[in-house]
Write a structure and sequence with these properties.
The structure is a homodimer.
Chain A lengths: L10 H10 L5 E2 H10 L9 H13 L3 E6 L7 E6 L1 H12 L7 E3 L1 H7 L6 H31 L8 H33 L2
Antiparallel strand pairs in A: 1-3, 2-3
Chain A binds a DNA duplex through helix 3.
DNA sequence: TCAGCCATGTAATGGGTTACATGATTGA
DNA sequence: TCAATCATGTAACCCATTACATGGCTGA
C-alpha cells in the first residue's frame, strides 16, 4: 500500500465551495445553474460531477446538508458552507498552481493538419471559428453591459468582472487572429 | 440495450493518425515525443492514453503494427497509417466541431473568488500568471524563429506555423491583460 | 559509482461525461 | 393538448491521469 505521490487537486470541489461562500444555501441544481452563469466560462463540471463533489465535501465536513421537502417539485437538499469549508477554500485559494490554464482546441488540432484538406475547407473552418469568437465576444460584452447597469464593477462584483475582462480580451484576440489568417488564406488563393 | 445517442469523438485517435500521416513509422514512445513538440500545445493526451488509442486504431484497421526487436533498448512496436486510416482522418478533419476550443483555467477560477484573498495575494497570483504568459510567449517566439531559419513558414510548415501564430497572439494577449490588471490593482492599493 | 535520464510500455485509479428517471408547469 | 422546460437527482461508462516496471546509458 503506497501513498499517492500527487494528491488530486479536486479543483471542482473548491469551485463549489466558492459558490457556497456567497452566503446562500444552494442545492445541487442551484449550483449547476450558478456555474453556468459564472465560472462556467473557464470551469465546466458536469452536473453529476457537482452532485458527486457535494457528497464529498459533506463527508469532509466542509459543508452541511439539509433536506427541504417540496410539494410541487422534487424534494431537494441544500448545502451550506461550514467554517472548516471556508478554511479549506482559503487554503486552496492561496496555494500554488502548476499550470495556470490550458487550452484544449479541436479547431487548432484540425488546423494543424490543414495540409490534408482543400483550402476552401480550411477557410470554412476558420470562418466558423471567427463566428464563434465573435459570438463569445458579444456574449461577454453583453454581460459587461449588465454589470455596468447594476452597480458597476466596483465592490463585490470586482473579481468576477476581472475574469470577464479576460474573456473579452481573449475573444477579441481570437477574432483578430482569425481575420488576419483569413486574409492570408485568400491571398494564397489568388496565386494558384 | 440502447444505442449511444452521442458517439465519442475520439479526437485523440485522430491526433495520432495525423502524426502518423506525416509518413514515418512511429512507436508509442515516438508519438509521445512528437506530441510534445507539436500539437501538445493545444492537445495533451497522456502517455498511456496514446498507447491505448494505438491499440484501438489498429483494431479498427486504421493503422498496422510491426514489432521491431532491439538490442540495447526494449523492443518496440511501430505503427503505420493504412489507407482506411487516411480516409477516417480525412472524414474527421472535414467533419463539424461543436466547441472549437475550451479554456480550463485554475487561475481564473481562483481569481473569480479573489475577494476572499488579501490584495497582495491576488497580485502575487497575477504576477505569476504574467510570468507564465511571458514564458509561453518566449517559447513560441523561439519556435517561430526556428521555423524562419529552417525554410520559413511556406510549404509543409504552413499550418503548424499558423497554429503557432495563434499561440503567440493568445500569449501576448494574456501578457497585456495581466499588465493592465496589475496596474489597476496597484492603483486600488493607493487609496485604502 | 550512482543518480538521473533514455526508452518502452502496463496497471490501477479516479474524474468527468452521457444517459436514465420522474413528475409538475407553461407556452404555443 | 402536447412538447418543451423546470426541477431534482442517479447510474454506467469511458477517457485520461498517476503510478508501476525494467534495463541500459551517461554525466558529475
Amino acid at each position: 500500500m503506497k501513498a499517492r505521490l500527487k494528491a488530486p487537486t479536486r479543483d471542482t470541489s473548491f469551485a463549489i465551495l466558492g459558490l457556497l461562500s456567497m452566503g446562500q444555501e444552494l442545492s445541487g441544481y442551484d449550483l449547476v445553474k450558478a456555474v453556468e452563469g459564472s465560472v462556467g466560462f473557464f470551469w465546466t463540471p458536469a452536473k453529476s460531477q457537482i452532485y458527486a463533489e457535494l457528497k464529498r465535501v459533506v463527508s469532509l465536513g466542509w459543508a452541511t446538508e439539509r433536506e427541504v421537502p417540496q410539494s410541487n417539485r422534487p424534494d431537494k437538499r441544500v448545502y451550506t458552507l461550514t467554517p472548516e469549508g471556508q478554511d479549506a477554500l482559503h487554503t486552496w485559494l492561496k496555494g500554488p498552481d502548476e499550470e495556470p490554464e490550458d487550452i484544449k482546441s479541436v479547431f487548432l488540432l484540425k488546423l494543424f493538419y490543414g495540409h490534408l484538406l482543400d483550402r476552401e475547407d480550411v477557410i470554412a473552418k476558420v470562418l466558423e471559428y471567427r463566428e464563434w469568437a465573435r459570438s463569445m465576444l458579444a456574449r461577454y460584452e453583453a454581460i459587461d453591459q449588465l454589470i455596468d447597469e447594476h452597480g458597476g464593477h466596483e465592490g463585490p462584483q470586482f473579481y468576477p468582472w476581472v475574469t470577464l475582462t479576460y474573456g473579452i480580451a481573449h475573444a477579441r484576440c481570437g477574432v483578430e487572429w482569425s481575420e488576419r489568417l483569413l486574409q492570408e488564406l485568400e491571398e494564397k488563393g489568388g496565386k494558384p
